[in-house]
Amino acid sequence: MTTHAVTDRTERSEGREGTAEATQSMRTPAALADAERWTAHNYHPLPVVIAEAEGAWVTDVDGRRYLDFLSGYSALNFGHSHPGLIAAAHAQLDKLTLTSRAFVHDQFAEFCQSLAQLCGKDMVLPMNTGAEAVETAIKVSRAWGYRVKGVAAERANIVVAENNFHGRTTTIISFSTDPDARNDFGPYTPGFTIVPYGDLDAIAAAIDENTVMVLLEPIQGEAGVLVPPAGYLAGVRALCDQHNVLFAADEIQSGLGRTGRTFAIEHEGVVPDMYLLGKALGGGIVPVSAVAANRDILGVLRPGEHGSTFGGNPLACAVGAEVVRLLRTGEFQKRSAELGERLHAGLNKLIGHGVVAVRGRGLWAGVDIDPALMTGRQVSERLMARGVLAKDTHGSTVRLAPPLVVTEEDLDHALAQLEAVLTEGA
Ligand SMILES: Cc1ncc(COP(=O)(O)O)c(C=O)c1O
């Protein structure tokens, strides 16, 4: 596959020298200070101020270049400034950007049809952020429970997993087990049962006549790229079928090519009742999320019960339809599977040399750093100094998720930088 990643040898070497020579920065400190001064401190970003990007590479305000190994938490699966996606956005910008759902626009049906077909489902409900897709699934499953399954009013229950990450709304954090996400934001929304991830017996025990949905990430991203035991997702599918419960797969981070398949749940040959999609669906350009499901589920919603001013807007649909076209080629999934093997082979060699465990699938890895050596944050900072941007999670884990357009050479370069960071030691 041809990629639009920067592949020119000279340009790239210059870029790497640029990172190595990164000493006298000019604009970065002031830009960081201004951001610190004028924004709430709800994030703790690495001290880099990005101004431009193409493919797997970003350039900061002082001209230093870095390999992006986070990809906007997988929102940039197709790389920065993918020419096809940018062209679709530009073309739509000149024509029509917003109608609200009070009217229908000419990009709507095509996007919804192509996404529904990609998912093998009857229909989709488009929203904007991932959290909104999750909220949509919660509302739909409850309404389905009352109107179809016959659950008694106000009794609907949803089973979720420990260490989940499904977003930041007050309802979603009500079933988070992460104190940072949850503490001091109560009172919490009732109606959720939390069970250990990967434990089928726990799900079986949690399901009762009021259970309307089991909501899971097929791979838990924020928790550290945790892959459940083989057979788990298939077992959940069987339990949901047995008890007439909806199975929703939150593929917002794991989906759309990231793991080497269109959906991470495909690795187990499982089809959920609802796919929750976001992040890469917007091509790294606009927030686009959606729930895809069959008519007997999404059809429970009636006009006026749910919606969003921006959900399914013309710009989002034009970009989203192009994302679906890219996924239909299968090239990104193939690339992620092939390069993913190279990534994991390289990372596995580091086990015992500063790395204690590696998890993941495709171009997605959670790398547990030996806590005696360094924290995940320290590793991320040192990688940054060597021109690779990655993000830590939960103390000692570093997440690696390059855009799927990354080249073999770039991948090897990033692996060499990680090895160098670990060899240097604390
Ligand atoms: C699995 C999963 N679900 C939901 C979300 C929330 O998406 P958003 O930040 O777009 O609301 C995220 C974000 O990281 C996620 O990883």
Automatic annotation (TrEMBL):
PROSITE patterns: AA_TRANSFER_CLASS_3 (PS00600). SUPFAM superfamilies: PLP-dependent transferases. Pfam families: Aminotran_3. Residues 1-31 are annotated as: Disordered. One of its GO terms (molecular function) is ornithine aminotransferase activity. It comes from the Bacteria. Pathway: Amino-acid biosynthesis; L-proline biosynthesis; L-glutamate 5-semialdehyde from L-ornithine: step 1/1. Residues 1-19 have a biased composition (Basic and acidic residues). Gene3D superfamilies: Aspartate Aminotransferase, domain 1, Type I PLP-dependent aspartate aminotransferase-like (Major domain). Its EC number is 2.6.1.13. Keywords: Amino-acid biosynthesis, Aminotransferase, Proline biosynthesis, Pyridoxal phosphate, Transferase. One of its GO terms (biological process) is L-proline biosynthetic process. The keyword Chaperone does not apply. Its cofactor is pyridoxal 5'-phosphate. NCBIfam families: Orn_aminotrans. Belongs to the class-III pyridoxal-phosphate-dependent aminotransferase family. This is ornithine aminotransferase. It comes from Krasilnikovia cinnamomea.
